[in-house]
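can u do me a favor
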């Protein structure tokens, strides 16, 4: 039976507040829902965790596991450390689909977490965990992808990612069992390797303002050292070289925006000049951030959309962070108005 995991307690408070009617001068600040659909598969593999991990971190094995033979490796090699990236391409849906995988966290012999980007716009997460048994290893795989998000709904409607990712994970679970135990037959373990579907529902928020300037001019300012100084001096946030270099990768970042200084990584997943960027912050309150610069009425509609993901554990510190996070929407409003003033004032 499909499980629906609706995460509303505490995190929902971050997105509390009303919506405003869109005008040229006002800031639009509104909440919206994002749904992820995923599959969780648990199997027993007759191998040591280290052997399984080596297999999973080699993208060639993921390509070989695809029974439809529609998956190809475009770039990258075996994952070895944080920030390593692999790009795949699938034609399972009849059209080319790009899939980027970036390693966020690796605990050797225990598990890993990777963030995925489909078609340079749709988010996903891929995780595996291993537990040593007397006669093998329990391997748990999780692969989830955005299934509903108004910001990328047109792309989601064209792609059947829910079906594609479920099939790929089930293929991988079967393939890895047979690889380490050749006596098994792929057909005989098919049913046992079927994963359990689940859903996660998050509330996200988008804050937007109209700017009397072109997207190119807005992007130029937001990737300038001057704007980085404003973020640091006025908002106590340091995103290093991420947006100045505007090249996908993992950058050291930090802030004391939520009451205490915190160092974390900013994973810049996609950057399309004068159009949009997608980032992921590995903070104690992990967040996905989209920045969109869209032409509108001889100017630009600048939108910052963010989604805070649930922490790994609820502690007193996390509770304090959630309370402080109530400030985020208004702080973003002020930051966007600062950008508007700086860009329009520069002539």
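np, heres the sequence
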């Amino acid at each position: 039976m499909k499980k629906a995991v609706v995460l509303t307690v505490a995190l929902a408070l971050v997105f509390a507040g009303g919506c405003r009617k869109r005008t040229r001068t006002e800031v639009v600040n509104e909440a919206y829902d994002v749904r992820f659909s995923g599959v969780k598969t648990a199997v027993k593999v007759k191998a040591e965790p280290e052997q399984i991990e080596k297999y999973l971190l080699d993208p060639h094995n993921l390509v070989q596991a695809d029974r439809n033979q529609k998956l190809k490796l475009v770039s990258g090699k075996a994952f070895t450390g944080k920030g390593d990236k692999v790009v795949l391409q699938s034609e399972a849906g009849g059209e080319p689909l790009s899939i980027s995988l970036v390693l966020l966290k690796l605990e050797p012999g225990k598990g890993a977490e990777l963030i995925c980007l489909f078609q340079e716009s749709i988010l996903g997460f891929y995780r595996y965990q291993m537990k040593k048994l007397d006669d093998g290893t329990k391997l748990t795989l999780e692969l989830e992808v955005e299934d509903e998000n108004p910001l990328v709904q047109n792309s989601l409607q064209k792609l059947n990612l829910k079906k594609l990712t479920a099939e790929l994970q089930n293929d991988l679970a079967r393939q890895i069992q047979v690889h380490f135990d050749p006596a098994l037959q792929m057909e005989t373990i098919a049913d046992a390797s079927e994963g359990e579907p689940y859903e996660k529902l998050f509330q996200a928020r988008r804050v937007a303002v109209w700017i009397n300037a072109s997207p190119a001019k807005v992007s130029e300012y937001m990737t300038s050292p001057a704007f980085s100084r404003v973020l640091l001096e006025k908002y106590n946030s340091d995103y290093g070289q991420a947006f100045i270099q505007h090249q996908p990768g993992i950058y050291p970042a930090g802030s004391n925006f939520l009451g205490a200084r915190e160092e974390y990584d900013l994973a810049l997943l996609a950057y399309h000049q004068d159009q949009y960027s997608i980032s992921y912050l590995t903070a104690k309150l992990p967040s996905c951030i989209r920045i969109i610069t869209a032409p509108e009425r001889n100017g630009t509609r600048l939108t910052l959309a963010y989604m805070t993901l649930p922490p790994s554990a609820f502690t007193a510190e996390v509770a304090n962070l959630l309370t402080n996070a109530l400030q985020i929407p208004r702080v973003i409003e002020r930051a966007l108005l600062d950008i508007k003033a700086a860009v329009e004032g520069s002539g």
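The chain has two domains: 3-33+202-345, 34-201. hope that helps!!
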